[in-house]
Amino acid sequence: MGSAGLSRLHGLFAVYKPPGLKWKHLRDTVELQLLKGLNARKPPAPKQRVRFLLGPMEGSEEKELTLTATSVPSLVNHPLVLGVGHGCRLLTDMYNAHLTKDYTVRGLLGKATDDFCEDGRLVEKTTYDHVTREKLDRILAMIQGSHQKALVMYSNLDLKTQEAYEMAVRGLIRPMNKSPMLITGIRCLHFAPPEFLLEVQCMHETQKELRKLVHEIGLELKTTAVCSQVRRTRDGFFTLDSALLRTQWDLHNIQDAIRAAAPQVASELEKSLGPQLDTKELPSREWSWESQGPSSTLVPERGAGH
User: Fold this and answer.
1) 235 DSSP β-pair partners
2) Which H or E run includes 45?
3) How many Å apart are CA 62 and CA 279, to the nearest integer?
4) Taking each helix axis from N to C terminus, what angle separates 251-273 and 23-39, rounded to the nearest 10 degrees?
5) Which residue from 176, 175, 225, 157 is spatially nearest to 196, judged by alpha carbons?
6) How many helices, marked H, and strands, marked E, lie in the chain?
7) How far is it between the farthest Cα atoms of the chain?
8) pLDDT grade, residue 285 (50/70/90)?
9) 305 CB-near residues (< 8 Å, 6+ apart)
10) Which tens digits make up the pLDDT trace of 222-263?
11) Tens of pLDDT along 73-91?
């Protein structure tokens, strides 16, 4: 395909991961669809370059050699697309920005399992009649408060400075390096014992840590609880609304998604990283790169067990 089409395959995009689908299988599927889309288009004529070849001089009886100029195809611009090009650099910037993610986490009171999942091996059964919405809200407030203190500690900021105050007001306090899971916000969306639904805003989390959070909440409530579902609803500046469904994992939709996300990607990364960011590499709505390179996809996850 032409260079104009390839230039639209540099950036970040989000896809929706159905429950139970492994992320590696999803990545391979998206990559295959991209390759199918690229191969379906008419390839461009290879560019020519001049090369001097060593050979015998024509018409000479002696073994004299001469250099002959000839035109050969240049392989530099032949498409080799493994993902979304220079989006790899942006994924690194996104990681360094320590952006938060949003989850809805569903819990079930009254039992404990060995892996904190509802379908894990049952360890204990308990009563939960004493648990109320007010008690749950109080525990959640305590958890959020302790994690906010930890966030300040891992950010290595002096809150007495004007810079730290302004960052706190803008919600830009972030850890300087990798840290344990940090919760910036947590609240109960629905409470109907034995079930409850939480909204969790956090960073540096794992699926297991989120499931363990439900277990620890159960212990604080003087009972037990297991996690029945974990669903990511936002990953940094990507939400479910911007995630491509499985039927949209094709070249055209991915190109459109990259172009639509580019302005927000640039704005959010510049706001979060500031002077640390090389603004020359930020995408715009007309972002175009002449070279190609490998990349990855950003995959919002869904489901309790991964």
Assistant:
1) 101, 238
2) none
3) 62
4) 120
5) 225
6) 7, 11
7) 106
8) very low
9) 117, 119, 207
10) 999 999 999 989 988 888 888 888 888 888 888 888 888 889
11) 433 332 222 235 666 677 7
